[in-house]
Amino acid sequence: MKITTLIENRESTNELNLTSEWGLSLYVEVNNHSILFDMGSSGAFADNAKHLSIKIDSVDVAVLSHHHFDHGGGLKRFFELNFNAKVYLADAPDGECYSKILGFLKKYIGLDRTMMDDHRERFEFVGKPTEIIPDVFIFPQIIDTHPKPLGNKQLYLKTKGGLSPDAFSHEIVMAIKENGKLVIFTGCSHNGILNMIDTVAKEFEGVPIKAVIGGFHLVASPPFNLMAGTRKEVENIAKSMLNYPVDVTYTGHCTGKQAFNILESVMGDRIKDMPTGSRFDL
């Protein structure tokens, strides 16, 4: 399995012509299939793909981790380049996705409604565990055993009744099974990274996990890159991660630099970052 970070918050460490932005997009090659997991905030993921000699028009299937713009903002560009691949995602939330910056500035952070209407035939909404292509699974119903990230406190759903906390029923976790092991993909882990892992582990009891890849949403306010929660709370997540049969974790985007440093202080070489342009084989 080969994975390329097409776009992420941080600049590439060795590819100066790549764009970075607040968002996430991963390109996965496995078993002669290509998967696009999330599409960043804009069409820049596709520009980066071109620089990296990755053909978006040949992507077999796309997956959106949840209904936020920083993971599905590139839908327009994707549909301009790719005319066949289905886009799998969880059912839409019961309201419009909003954030409150500094506690009072409201901002729409959902998907482009025009894209959802104009390309309705390209979307596959999934309400139960589904194998979308051989050995690639998505799970829309996340176990709720562990606490959800405190960073969620600024995220809401807007309905006729006003704003209410987003419970993130519109988030999925993806798992790929290869050579008797699993690789788990999360977008932001709004449901909590431990709950995401538990959801997959329950479905594949006893199967070792080669890697976990994605954001942990440990940022409190993305524009200011502040950390949600205390150092002890982040350390406890790291200690729990070490108790899972996970060989290595790659994280970035909404995990945040401060939280990553704390996670790394506990997990050592079992956690790595994944800036824009990074490539790794599993």
Number of domains: 1
What is the CATH C-level name? Answer: Alpha Beta
Number of helical segments? 7
Q: What is the CATH homology-level superfamily?
A: Ribonuclease Z/Hydroxyacylglutathione hydrolase-like
The string of secondary-structure elements, in order, is EEEHEHHEEEHEEEEEEEHEEEHEHEE
Largest sheet: 7 strands, mixed
Q: Would you identify the regions where 5 or more consecutive residues have pLDDT less than 50?
A: none
Q: How confident overall, as mean pLDDT?
A: 95
Task: Walk me through what this model shows.
- There is one protein chain.
- The strands form four sheets. This protein has a seven-stranded mixed β-sheet with strand order 8-5-4-3-2-1-20.
- The longest helix is centred in the C-terminal third of the chain and has 12 residues, at 231-242.
- The protein has 282 residues and is an alpha/beta fold.
- It has one domain: Metallo-beta-lactamase, Chain A, CATH 3.60.15.
- It is 21% helix and 32% strand.
- The model has no long low-confidence stretch (mean pLDDT 95).
- α6 (231-242) packs across α7 (257-267).
- The termini are close together.
